[in-house]
Amino acid sequence: MAFRVAGLFLKRELVAPATQQIRLLRTSNTARTQFLANSPNTALDKSILQRYRNLETPANRVQATYLWIDGTGENIRLKDRVLDKVPSSVEDLPDWQYDGSSTYQAHGENSDTTLKPRAIYRDPFKPGKNDVIVLCDTYNADGQPTASNKRASFQAAVDKIGDQEPWFGIEQEYTLLDVDGRPFGWPENGFPAPQGPYYCGVGADRVYARDLVEAHAVACLYAGIDFAGTNAEVMPAQWEYQVGPSNGLKASDDLWVSRYILQRIAEEYGVVVTFDPKPMEGQWNGAGAHTNFSTKAMRAEGGIKAIEAAIEKLSKQHQRHIKAYDPKEGKDNERRLVGRLETSSIDKFSWGVANRAVSVRVPRGVATAGKGYFEDRRPSSNCDPYAVCGALVRTCLLNE
């Protein structure tokens, strides 16, 4: 039995589980060595950069890394500029421009695309204590949002809802790969043992790249992200972290910046991060971005009634949400939402208490307390959180 992934053809070896575990440990160690040798980034001497990071920089000069979402709706782009004063808020940051024809957002004959700063974070990668990450959204030459700018629409929706205080918490799943596209730590010519021991696991034969994951957590906390936690996921080489709960746009802003930080740290380790919702075919869990949602009414005593009313609204807008929940308008989620492996069917809306095989889950503790939040399990791991959260607000609060 075999399957193809990212240009590789991997062959399953039919061995007894205990033998397979031992072979996995041996071959995964070999794979790591080969993996590091194949990664150009890990060949660089990082101590040379540290030499320059230790140099004293002028107190009034600040490095600002401007981030934005490109035309795919999935990928982060960035460029740096030096400011002549320390910004105290996004209002202190200038707009900027970039070549949108190189990011799938403009044509070459009119390619200047505008960056407007929207959120500011401490930068864990630059040496200066005042250096910042600047999250931006993007605008065409006529001043209109680019097609991939879902933040502007989400902001417009939030501006209409008054004091309902929507909170969002997002569970970001992802998978680590080597530079050739093989899941990190998997045997070079076979499979790991079946799913079961890896979720929240411990041990060198069950967990891969914990150092990278823990570095990411510390960097996100330093940056000012509402980082809530992390855990190893069901498929080996798959992980999850959570942001929020945060009010309004902050959880979505935080998720995009946390994705950038994760990929930057992975660069240094020579590891590839993929947010593909189904990176491995077969009996392996896919990856989602389960989104927890609540309002002031849901969190109040008797809030379960507001939760049930919101779920009823969602049940009538299922296809609209499926289109909003991955960048390819449902095409990526078709591979993941198959009605098994802890997913619901993409074609049918469902909900239940403590059930992970439904579209929307009400946690057991919420049902017992009679108030709290619900979890929308449909968003894909590569979703645009602005589109996801915007759809929830427009359906549940604006009745669109």
TrEMBL record:
SMART domains: Gln-synt_C
One Pfam family hit: Gln-synt_C
InterPro entries: Gln_synt_N, Gln_synt_N_sf, Gln_synth/guanido_kin_cat_dom, Gln_synth_cat_dom, Gln_synth_gly_rich_site, Gln_synth_N_conserv_site, Glutamine_Synthetase
EC number, UniProt record: 6.3.1.2
GO molecular function: ATP binding; glutamine synthetase activity
Domain GS beta-grasp: 62-143
GO biological process, alphabetically ordered: L-glutamine biosynthetic process; phagocytosis
Reactions performed catalytically: L-glutamate + NH4(+) + ATP = L-glutamine + ADP + phosphate + H(+)
One GO CC term, this protein: mitochondrion
Enzyme's top EC category: ligase
All residue ranges annotated as the GS catalytic domain in the record: 150-400
Coiled-coil stretches noted in the UniProt entry, renumbered to this chain: 297-324
Signal peptide: none
SUPFAM superfamilies from the UniProt entry: Glutamine synthetase, N-terminal domain, Glutamine synthetase/guanido kinase
Keywords, in A-Z order: ATP-binding, Coiled coil, Ligase, Nucleotide-binding
Self-association and partners: Homooctamer.
Record family assignment: Belongs to the glutamine synthetase family.
Protein name (Swiss-Prot/TrEMBL): Glutamine synthetase
Lineage per the UniProt record: Eukaryota, Metazoa, Ecdysozoa, Arthropoda, Hexapoda
This protein's encoding gene: Dana\GF14864
